[in-house]
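Let's inspect one such protein example.
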Amino acid sequence: MVLSQKQIDDLNKVSNKLPLQRLINYAKDGTITEAVLSQLSEMSAERRAQLLAIIKAPKPDAQEQQEWSAIMPRLKQKDEALKQLLDAYVSHWEAAMPLGNHVDEAKKVIAEIDSLLEDNAWDELDKNDSEALVAYLRKYPATSHKAEIDNYLWATVEAKEGDADRKSAARLYLQLFPEGMYQQEARSIITPGGGGSTPGGDNEHVGGGSVAAGIIPPAISQLKLVETWDWMAANPYDANYDAASRHFANLKQKELQTMREQLSAYSPDQVFYLIEKGIFTKEELIAEGLATAESLKILEERDDIIDSLPDINLEIAKCRKECAEDHTDVFLFGIPSTGKTCILMGLIGSPNMNINTVRAGGPYACVLEQFLDAGLTIGQTPKDFVATIEAEIQDGKDKHLINLVEMAGEDFAFKIADNEEGVISFEDMGAGATKLLCNNNRKSFFIIVDPTAKRVAFNHLVNETDAEGNVRTFLVRRNVNQKIILHRLVDLLAQPENKKILKNVDSISIVISKADLLGSGQEREDEAYNRFMDQHKNIIGPLVNLCRENGINANTNGQPMLYTFSLGRFYVGGVYQYDPTDANKLIEVLKGSTEITKKGNFSGKFKDIFN
């Protein structure tokens, strides 16, 4: 239950008279939240402390309970399909570990399934095939059949007839079993009468130079991931195989780190190329938390899914730039690729916001919601793009009427903050978003900041007119500095020419996007705050002064609030599982800063940037 402001005020008056157990029940069922508690000023300090402890206490996660309930009927099957479900479950909940979670139980079942799968693979293994034995050992390095593999692999060495083949097979044996039962025999084959030197020692020469143990030869160290994999496949008995294997392991870890840092930017085609090559298995990516069985299925069917969705570019072309009167216009400011559209998608998908699907950019909003349901994002919006979406937020019996305004990052960077003509008045910047800025509606600004990038490079479409009036269109590679653009925005807002616009602005907030890359919980909030202050601390003082002079952020004495946002849990290839938590947080911000509840409270986890 969400309390209206009147209900909160009434509760405040009787907060010391109501039975304590009733208040405790309210705290447990979510009626009294931390935000509500902060407004119960007449409540005794002792009661406040008790309720705050209950509110902050860990609670079971309803989604986790639901996911586990769906898995439970299949727990006796112990097959690959169940393993994929459990891997996805563990990947989703291992970091959060909500109260009453079943992560440890899931891991135990996964271990049982792995053991069964390994036993089945062992039963089907051709013990006379050295390549099959090696593949099995690499897939199951902790197998209980090592001693048997030692024997079987040595038998394949003895079965070789030619000296060269026997030496190659002996080298392979020692690479896998350097302390094996037949190590002395293997060394004798490699260097007859040579005192049993190990492969790769001073008696082994490749390309005219000795290969010291543990050192990766230059010719191999220069190979890239796929090249190393191909070399290993082509040279399983080479003396440098062990060195190549170490090099490959290092490259593989680097590739995993690249995936973690570029979840959305990492190409789905590259993901499946590496899987098809055998460099990664789906199970590995799931175990690393980079994918789930569901996310990989979406990637596999991505083209078909996109083909089944409406053409987003057609909807973008049809967007009407109109803001309904007597609404609060909510502007999303940010350079290209900062995640503005993701924030818009999150707000649209929230059950706490009702979108008008017919007026203005309503059809565009419908398409965004379909992409949201599919777990896919859209590409960069085109130059000159502006979308206005009419919406309402229910607040008890009242409604907050808003217009969501999204503009192309290019327009923000080049037409507004860093316009080439040097215009400093929004009214003089022409049509598009600047024209909407100059209407008579109340306004709320969200400044979107990408914490992962200082600069963004992209292709900028330029029109050039020659002396004869012919227009030529071409692409220019542009580089945008986020720090400079945001600084210029604040300076532009402070110009006297824009005073009239600022008189209509109720709030300015900072939103740190792509927050799923910053950790979770308080770690995420701290990391977002630290990154923002490292890069943009110089704009805080001017921004606070600007707000105070124009009555903006009245609830916080002019100080902007910093919020983190993620569309949900992202996986490699840009697929995600939508989570409305952060969108709901921003909706609460809007409820607290729009005209109907002018004195509403800013809720959600935030930091006082000014302090």
Q: What stands out?
A: The CA atoms of residues 184 and 196 lie 6 Å apart. The first strand starts at residue 205 and ends at 206. The first helix runs from residue 5 to 13. Residues 194-214, 597-611 have pLDDT under 50 and may be disordered.
